[in-house]
């Protein structure tokens, strides 16, 4: 039976799995971008089915991080190789933070996928050598509390990277230690258990055909692909959205629908609600408050503008509000 050496620790089957995972992640990002910029109506950001899809992809991706740690360093840490890859991941995480700080300052990424992977790579090293049962126990301890414990303290950004929030902070990407380091540990445990029998068999599998080879190639270069795919998607989608006006149209439709439903639920007639909501839409546009309202982060001055606009719109359907007492 073939042996898995340190020099041949890369398995084509694992590369293919990693290639599939990174393509799935890119497909989610594509759909999120299309939703955010108004090309599709599916609620990719909040629909439970889309959330499940995104989290499933993330779980597989982090599981494969654990697999890669065992394959690359399970017989002894190859420090030069480890630090070279770690620095690449860390630099990518830093680039994402800086890039999103300038493009989305209210929702910039401060602990996203790459930030988590950089930390998890370091935290995972001891678990390559401790008893497997101990790694499994810690994996359970990382995953299970997430489902039973939450505290408002972790809503704040300085603590949110740990997990356990009641309401997640506003950011475009957040991958907390609990429970996601558990996914890495599950990958480590599974690979260590599979090392004697299953991995040597996987080592004999060689991709044949263009698609498996392309997936294996993508898996080997998954990190560069991850770094460039969103800028490429946005470089295509954003100009199209600006040209076609899709984002503005979607926002206006969503706002009017939500406003109308809320207004009518409060007992106001449909006709009056239409007047009120149209007025609110015009105020948001004139005061350039769309992005602020959607992000949920407004300055006191912006909140004052929003409140004043609401009062003016209320006065259109209840003129007595403008009369002096």
TrEMBL record:
<feature type="transmembrane region" description="Helical">
    <location>
        <begin position="223"/>
        <end position="244"/>
    </location>
</feature>
<protein>
    <recommendedName>
        <fullName>Heparan-alpha-glucosaminide N-acetyltransferase catalytic domain-containing protein</fullName>
    </recommendedName>
</protein>
<feature type="domain" description="Heparan-alpha-glucosaminide N-acetyltransferase catalytic">
    <location>
        <begin position="10"/>
        <end position="231"/>
    </location>
</feature>
<keyword id="KW-0472">Membrane</keyword>
<feature type="transmembrane region" description="Helical">
    <location>
        <begin position="132"/>
        <end position="154"/>
    </location>
</feature>
<feature type="transmembrane region" description="Helical">
    <location>
        <begin position="20"/>
        <end position="38"/>
    </location>
</feature>
<feature type="transmembrane region" description="Helical">
    <location>
        <begin position="50"/>
        <end position="71"/>
    </location>
</feature>
<keyword id="KW-0812">Transmembrane</keyword>
<dbReference type="Pfam" id="PF07786">
    <property type="entry name" value="HGSNAT_cat"/>
</dbReference>
<keyword id="KW-1133">Transmembrane helix</keyword>
<feature type="transmembrane region" description="Helical">
    <location>
        <begin position="83"/>
        <end position="102"/>
    </location>
</feature>
<dbReference type="InterPro" id="IPR012429">
    <property type="entry name" value="HGSNAT_cat"/>
</dbReference>
<feature type="transmembrane region" description="Helical">
    <location>
        <begin position="174"/>
        <end position="194"/>
    </location>
</feature>
<feature type="transmembrane region" description="Helical">
    <location>
        <begin position="108"/>
        <end position="125"/>
    </location>
</feature>
């Amino acid at each position: 039976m073939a042996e898995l050496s340190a020099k041949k620790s890369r398995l084509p089957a694992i590369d293919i799995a990693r290639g599939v995972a990174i393509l799935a992640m890119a497909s989610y990002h594509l759909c999120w971008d299309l939703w955010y910029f108004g090309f599709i109506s599916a609620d990719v950001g909040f629909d439970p089915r889309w959330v499940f899809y995104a989290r499933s992809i993330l779980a597989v991706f982090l599981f494969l991080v654990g697999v890669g740690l065992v394959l690359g360093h399970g017989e002894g840490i190859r420090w030069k190789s480890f630090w070279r890859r770690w620095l690449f991941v860390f630099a990518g995480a830093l680039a994402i933070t800086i890039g999103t700080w300038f493009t989305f300052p209210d929702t910039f990424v401060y602990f996203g996928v790459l930030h988590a992977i950089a930390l998890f790579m370091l935290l995972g090293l001891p678990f390559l050598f401790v008893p497997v049962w101990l790694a499994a126990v810690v994996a359970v301890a990382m995953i299970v509390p997430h489902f039973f414990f939450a505290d408002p303290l972790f809503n704040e950004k300085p603590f949110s990277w740990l997990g356990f929030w009641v309401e997640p902070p506003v950011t475009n990407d957040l991958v907390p230690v609990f429970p996601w380091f558990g996914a890495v540990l599950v990958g480590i445990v599974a690979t260590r258990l599979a090392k004697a029998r299953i991995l040597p068999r996987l080592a004999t599998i060689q991709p044949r055909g263009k698609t498996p080879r392309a997936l294996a190639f993508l898996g080997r270069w998954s990190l560069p692909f991850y770094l460039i795919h969103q800028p490429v998607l946005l470089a295509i989608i954003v100009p199209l959205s600006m040209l076609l006006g899709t984002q503005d149209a979607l926002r206006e439709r969503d706002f009017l629908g939500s406003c109308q439903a809320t207004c009518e639920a409060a007992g106001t007639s449909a006709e009056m609600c239409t007047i009120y909501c149209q007025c609110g839409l015009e105020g948001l546009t004139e005061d350039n408050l769309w992005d602020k309202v959607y992000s949920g982060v407004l300055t006191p001055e912006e909140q004052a503008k929003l409140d004043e606009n609401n009062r003016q719109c209320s006065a259109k359907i209840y003129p007595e509000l403008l009369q002096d007492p």
